[in-house]
């Protein structure tokens, strides 16, 4: 019971810090190039990934060893690109709208798992996916009657992250979680360091404080999430991560003056409900298959 309570505490801490991180990212990207912000953020993430790998069983040598180097490279590049797109989206369409669209991720993952992982999706999950995308259409519903092309940015971010998640599942068949975490941090940092310096802009002294906080939130949120996964099943944690949408919306409205329409809120509720059902159904089927294999 105590470990479960600690797991929930770590999960809520991680989600809260992720939301704060999004708010800080929006503030910084409003003044500086997204690639520059992402590069500095990745430097801290890389140091954290290397430190975690060094303390893991087998140390760095074990973490570096991978049977899928090409896919690990692709994963790292996908997440790096997704982070740049995501933090750009916070400024282009707002925190609340971005997170609402990002919440369609589990639906995209379920669809991509069919061709890439060879998984089968039954009619219940297909129905949930279809209903979820109706919610996405509500979120995208333009007040002017014309589709706002700016929404393509968070949609692209959601798709990039979905590909990253599916490839992570694919490599997990042969590589350890620590190996994947190590390559996520190192590949992303190297990629950003090759591009970011071309966008270097003088950063104001007070914004270096925000940049430092951004790095700290990036490290601490991942640490708390790792601890949460040590204590709780993924099926418990994943639905709770939707709270980030709520927290980000509060930050967006209270600090950045964003406005939430009724259709956007209704669409987000539908997407979240469909996503939670998809996650639960996937877990239930996996548990059923495991029982059948044991008997």
Automatic annotation (TrEMBL):
It comes from the Bacteria. Residues 6-140, 155-278 form the EamA domain. GO terms for cellular component: membrane. The chain crosses the membrane at residues 35-53, 73-94, 100-118, 125-140, 152-170, 182-202, 208-226, 235-256, 262-280. The keyword Methyltransferase does not apply. Keywords: Membrane, Transmembrane, Transmembrane helix. InterPro entries: EamA_dom (IPR000620), EmrE-like (IPR037185). Pfam families: EamA. PANTHER family: ACYL-MALONYL CONDENSING ENZYME-RELATED, BLR2811 PROTEIN. This is Permease of the drug/metabolite transporter (DMT) superfamily.
């Amino acid at each position: 019971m105590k470990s479960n309570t600690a797991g929930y505490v770590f999960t809520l801490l991680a989600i809260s810090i992720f939301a704060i991180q999004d708010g800080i990212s929006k503030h910084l990207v409003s003044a500086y190039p997204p690639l520059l912000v992402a590069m500095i953020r990745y430097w801290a993430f890389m140091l954290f990934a290397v430190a975690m790998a060094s303390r893991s069983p087998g140390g760095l040598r074990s973490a570096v060893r991978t049977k899928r180097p090409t896919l690990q490279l692709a994963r790292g590049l996908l997440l790096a690109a997704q982070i740049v797109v995501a933090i750009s989206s916070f400024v282009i369409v707002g925190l609340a709208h971005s997170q609402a669209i990002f919440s369609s991720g589990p639906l995209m993952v379920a669809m991509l798992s069919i061709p890439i992982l060879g998984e089968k999706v039954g009619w219940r999950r297909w129905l949930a996916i279809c209903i979820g995308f109706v919610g996405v259409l509500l979120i995208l519903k333009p007040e002017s009657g014309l589709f706002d092309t700016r929404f393509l940015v968070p949609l692209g971010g959601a798709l990039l992250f979905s590909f990253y998640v599916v490839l992570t599942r694919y490599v997990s068949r042969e590589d350890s979680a620590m190996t994947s975490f190590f390559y996520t941090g190192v590949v992303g940092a190297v990629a950003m360091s090759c591009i970011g310096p071309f966008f270097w802009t003088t950063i104001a002294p007070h914004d270096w404080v925000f940049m430092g906080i951004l790095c700290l939130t990036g490290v601490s949120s991942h640490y708390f999430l790792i601890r949460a996964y040590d204590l709780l099943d993924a099926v418990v944690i994943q639905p709770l991560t939707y709270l980030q949408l709520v927290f980000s919306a509060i930050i967006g409205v209270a600090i950045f003056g964003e406005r939430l329409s009724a259709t956007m809120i209704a669409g987000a509720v539908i997407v979240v409900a469909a996503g939670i059902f998809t996650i639960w159904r996937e877990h239930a089927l996996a548990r059923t298959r495991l029982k059948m294999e044991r008997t």
